[in-house]
Amino acid sequence: MKILTAAQTHQLDQATMQAQNITSTELMERAAGALAEWFYGEFHSNEAGEILVLCGPGNNGGDGLALARLLHAAGYAVRVALLPTEKQSADWQHNRQHLPAAVPVAELAAGALPAIAPGALVIDALFGTGLARPLAGLAAAVVAHLNQARAHVVAVDLPSGLLADGPQPDPGAPVVRASYTLGFGLPKLAFLLPQNADYVGEWHVLDIGLDQDFIDQAATPWHFTQLADANVALPRRGRFGYKNTFGHALLLAGSRGKMGAAVLSAGACLRGGVGLLTAHIPGVGYDVFQTTRPEAMCLTDAQADFVSELPDLGPYQAVGIGPGLGQADATRAVLEELLRTAKVPLVIDADALNLLGAHRELLELLPENTVLTPHIGEFTRLTEKAHDDYHRLDLLRAFIQKHRCVVVLKGAYTAVGAPDGQVYFNSTGNPGMGTGGSGDVLTGLVLALRADQRLGPLHATRLAVLAHGHAGDLAAAETGEAGLIAGDLVAHIGPALQALTV
Questions:
Q1: Of 235, 307, 392, 494, whose CB neighbour count within 10 A is largest?
Q2: Same domain for 70 and 186?
Q3: Is the pLDDT of residue 230 over 90?
Q4: At 162, which CATH number?
Q5: Domain check: are 211 and 323 in the same one?
Q6: What is the number of alpha carbons within 13 Å of residue 414 lying toward its C-beta?
Q7: 157 assigned to a ligand binding site
Q8: How far is residue 114 CA from its own chain's centroid?
């Protein structure tokens, strides 16, 4: 699913009207109908209380007026407050004329802002995607008043005051803090970034039949990956496939006190369907590894406490390095040798990333299509401190294009950056996955799918991220988010991949 800019979204509306031979008023009615249907399912008329609809002068306000009419017809108690202006859009005027007289309407004024009780239900239809500057004057006062009321706010299209495509130029300007945000057709980039979470709340995208041909042809670097995305499905295994068919992976992991990371990563690789797995670990971890992961083969390093040797890479179709690895100088030398000599796909995580960050000259040795799986702190060490989440995405795109690699920037909507500069946000996962070892599990899963020669680097990585998050969702359904541990992710990788197999 593509993520478009505000300008492209406007063009999409125009293309839809032309392709489907409908008017802007008819498209607005379609949007209002979708909003109302969502509302009916979320809030029952006998429980919602009186609903305040705040309407601006443009088409976002027109959506609000049309929604107020539909909610009134469905038996909800509705009142409308209008932001005064000398000019309104034509569709606003149409829906104002068709608002039943029984719906109370007031004009907003600085000295007479509407009373909003704590917990009241308010629909924010002041300003949507078309807003290009911070709120000021009366509009800013209304939003500040709304935020202070601690109401339950449903934002139409976008919380008023929030920009769709970039950071706020004036961080002090008020932005509606919505409980829910209801977008149309496609998600917006603003929905996916941590700095906007307190404004956007829980977001939903409503289908209003926008023109698919325009979407297919629109150029954008931003995408949103969902479970139903056929481009990241796992091919079904052939009847005569066997262990050599699905690749032999090598995992370099573990150090004294951190063998759990190696165990978790190996478990995920095995559950991820790898044909064969060999782990190269320090001597201190031999007993625990062989006991907990008997399905894997094990090579022990000459050093007891850390990895200091690179084994012969000849037997392997992919190599992963990093979970629990430590940052000994001898381990740094192993990483450098791996980067210089490997002819197979690499997956780099955790302490291997920290070694890269501490010795950035090694970045120039990254083989093309290497997969790096940093969290935000590790990515900062590889690049620089970001001014905000939008700047971090700029840094991500610059990094992946410069080094021709795939980067998994882990977070609530994990972003997978491809060497061509395209970025794919992930839809699966939950806050329970913010626990130690979760990243080690992802590394093992990526390694398994990179060893599978049926999958390309981007396909394998996006699939691993999608399945990892889905495993977390399956696990959380059983344990709850607070009770989820990394081992639960390993246990649910099989069912997660099964759901993604075609």
A1: 307
A2: yes
A3: no
A4: 3.40.50.10260
A5: no
A6: 31
A7: yes
A8: 36
Q: What is the band of 293 on the pLDDT scale with cuts at 50, 70, 90?
A: very high
Q: Binding residue per annotation — 443? A: no
Is 305 annotated to bind ligand?
A: no
Share of the chain above pLDDT 70, in %: 100
The answer to whether 332 is annotated as binding is no
- 256 has binding-site annotation: no
pLDDT tens-digit series, residues 141-196: 999 999 999 899 999 999 999 999 999 888 889 999 999 999 999 999 999 999 99
Same domain, 324 and 441: yes
Residue 410, annotated ligand binder? yes
- Residue 431's SS3 state is helix
Domain of 450, in residue numbers = 318-499
Question: Strands 222-225 and 202-206, how do they pair?
Answer: unpaired
User: Domain of 449: which CATH number?
Assistant: 3.40.1190.20
Helix, coil or strand: residue 63:
helix
Q: Is 128 annotated as a binding residue?
A: yes
Query: Does 129 show up as a binding residue in the annotation?
Result: yes
- Tell me how far apart the alpha carbons of residues 338 and 109 are, in angstroms, rounded to a whole number: 67
User: Residue 187: inside a domain, yes or no?
Assistant: yes
74 in a known ligand binding site: no
Provide the number of structural domains found in the chain: 2
Q: Are 307 and 280 in contact (CB under 8 A)?
A: yes
State yes or no: 445 annotated in a binding site.
no
| Residue 366 and residue 493 in one domain | yes
**Is residue 414 annotated as involved in ligand binding?**
yes
pLDDT score, position 46: 76
